[in-house]
Here is the input.
Amino acid sequence: MFARMRRMRLKENMRQLVREVRLDLRDFIYPLFVIEGEKIKNEISSMPDIYQMSLDHILQECENLINLNIYHIMLFGIPSHKDAIGSSALSPDGIIAKSIRAIKQKFPEMIISADLCFCEYTDHGHCGILDEKLQTIDNDATLEILGQQAVILANSGADMIAPSAMMDGMVLSIRTHLDRAGFSHIPIMSYSTKFASSYYGPFRDVANSTPSFGHRKSYQQDYANRREAILESLQDEAQGADILMVKPALAYLDIVRDIRERSLLPLAVYNVSGEYAMLKYAGSANLINYESTMIETLTSFKRAGADIIISYHTKELAKLIKNNRI
Ligand code: PBG
Ligand code: ZN
Here is the structure.
């Protein structure tokens, strides 16, 4: 009688029958980086197989994604003009707004989440407007422009707004702006628990968003704090977030579980650039089997309690599924 689980592990089909979580492409969101210009497709060495693409290539890529059954994307913008207040994020003809309109026109079935932040648009690379005296972010001034940016993105057709700036009161402010502008139906997926992490390094290369001075620790969270991490997500829930998120994913699965047990909202994880790059480089050095390690990693997010996975691996996963490899 003590061999109960062992008996069930004997045959592959039986193992499948008692499997607790599975990878389903419908739970995945694939990030894309749009750069201003034409006919541009730059691979960034820190993130193999991830490209900065101009809109023409992005549209081509959307077609590829749909052929792979990927219908959820998250857009990041790389504008050519940066200034202290990130003004190109506030223009209806800014890179993201323009791209969303073009994608939606060609592929209305594509569900687009728009990352909402200022670090890609500011010359100093911080996530909001600076308080010159304190040389840190002016939280409340940033709230106002985040609200404006959200309305611009919703206006251009974004299906979901994903604020990642980590300002206090961010979700409430964005919700209020969206509702006032007639977008009460547009959900907010908040980067509700976002740690100050070294795992974002490769992303900052791709998005050209490394801060020119200082760091983001004043507005991103200390990875040593579990209670604070839970509290941050619960506060965003109270402010009206529709989906919560933990970011990064892999080093924070305990927090994913903690939040899963305290909230009934859908929960996303962001499997960030550094996590992706580590697998890529370890795979290409033949230290690990890339595909099976990737699947093991993605499965661990589901097991920890995530409903939604934002991952640069999404396309590779889709190819494996398409070829019946998993
Ligand atoms: C911008 C933002 C970052 C990421 C997503 N949105 C970078 C940061 O906070 O420095 C990181 C994503 C990744 O590493 O893949 N606020
Ligand atoms: Zn930012």
